[in-house]
Structure formats: structure tokens, C-alpha cells
Design brief:
- The radius of gyration is 17 Å and the shape is elongated.
- With 200 residues, the protein is an alpha+beta fold.
- Helix 1 packs across helix 4 and helix 4 packs antiparallel against helix 5.
Length: 200
């Protein structure tokens, strides 16, 4: 069985103290869904704030103006991570590549159309199309692969969107309690720049 998770790399939460966060997992990847604990949501938000250089001192007093200034300067939000594929039967995993962050997760829809979008590097997810079957490898030439059909990948991506939407709902609860003066704008920005609820 192949499963796919939208994941954040949590290195940017190291040493974070502005609000409670969870202990990092061994692989330093946090799967986003509606099952996250409040502390795990705090970790995700710590990564997003730190990675995008949004100030976190006095979080409760942050306003829309702080976020709007950042968005104007940085031209959006980005998030380290992407999609993590795992075959539970074989144990093969395909991790997201560097420099193609979670904000690019929808590029995988191009794979369902027979295309080979750039999906990052080090490690580089490698795609081979064989008729209706997609072979995923962590590196070009690597024999360990995950095989799924285009229809299966479409269904998995729909599930990813559901999980991201659930995470967005948790993030709204978190923001209402932690950054109340910018909660609505923050959630709107996350939705916009991580391309969560838009239709394909």
C-alpha cells in the first residue's frame, strides 16, 4: 500500500521558545494533518515563521501589518518539505527533494498527466512513466522504486489536500489563541501560498 504525506522539515524549530512546540521526530519530518497535537501545530508554525523570517517576539501582539510587510518584501510564504511517499509493503520511501518546498506540492498533479516536473534535488525524486504506471525512485538509477498508477496518484493527492485542509483548520485554532491580531490574515496567507484549498 502506498501512502503520501505532506511533510514539513522541522530543523528551523531548533531552539524555538516563543511558544510551545513538540519534540522533533528522528527523521525531522512532521506530517501535516488534522491529527496533530497542539504542540505539533506549534512546531509547524515555528518552522513557517522562522523559515520566512517573520518576527516572533511578543507573538500575541503581532498584527496584519507585520505579516503584510513580510509578504510584500518576500513575495509570499514558503515552507521546507514536500510530499513523502512510502510503500508500506516494501518499505521503500521517496523523500521530498531540496529547494522544492511544500508550496510546490501541486506540481505532482503534472505527474498524473504524464509529465516530469522538477521536484527538487539532493535527494532528487526520479520519475519514469510506463504506460499508465508511474515509477518513483529517490535517485536516477536507484533500483528501489514505488509503482503506482496515475489514477492512484490522483487519489493520493486528493487525500493530501484533505490533510492540508485539516491542518489549516488546526492552524486557525492555534493562531486565534497565539497570534490573535493576525489570525485571519495568517491563515489566509497559508492557504494562498501553500495552495491548500484551491481547486485543481
Amino acid at each position: 500500500m502506498v501512502i503520501v504525506n505532506a511533510v514539513l522539515e522541522t530543523y528551523d524549530a531548533d531552539g524555538f521558545t516563543a511558544w510551545p512546540i513538540a519534540q522533533p521526530s528522528n527523521d525531522r519530518l512532521l506530517a501535516l494533518s488534522g491529527l496533530l497535537s497542539p504542540a505539533e501545530v506549534g512546531t509547524a508554525m515555528a518552522v513557517i515563521f522562522n523559515y520566512n523570517h517573520i518576527p516572533v517576539a511578543h507573538a500575541a501582539s503581532l498584527t496584519d501589518a507585520h505579516l503584510d510587510q513580510h509578504l510584500a518584501e518576500a513575495e509570499g510564504l514558503i515552507a521546507p518539505g514536500g510530499l513523502l511517499f512510502r510503500d508500506t509493503a516494501t518499505g521503500v520511501s521517496i523523500a521530498p527533494g531540496c529547494c522544492s518546498g511544500l508550496e510546490n506540492w501541486r506540481d505532482w498533479w503534472d505527474v498524473t498527466r504524464g509529465q516530469k516536473p522538477w521536484l527538487g534535488h539532493d535527494p532528487t525524486p526520479h520519475i519514469t512513466h510506463v504506460d499508465n504506471v508511474i515509477q518513483l525512485r529517490q535517485h536516477d538509477g536507484n533500483t528501489a522504486s514505488i509503482e503506482i498508477t496515475r489514477g492512484e496518484l490522483s487519489r493520493l493527492l486528493t487525500t493530501v489536500q484533505q490533510h492540508l485542509t485539516e491542518f489549516l483548520n488546526l492552524a486557525r485554532q492555534w493562531a486565534t489563541a497565539t497570534t490573535p491580531s493576525m489570525a485571519d490574515r495568517l491563515i489566509s496567507a497559508l492557504d494562498q501560498y501553500l495552495l491548500i484549498t484551491m481547486t485543481e
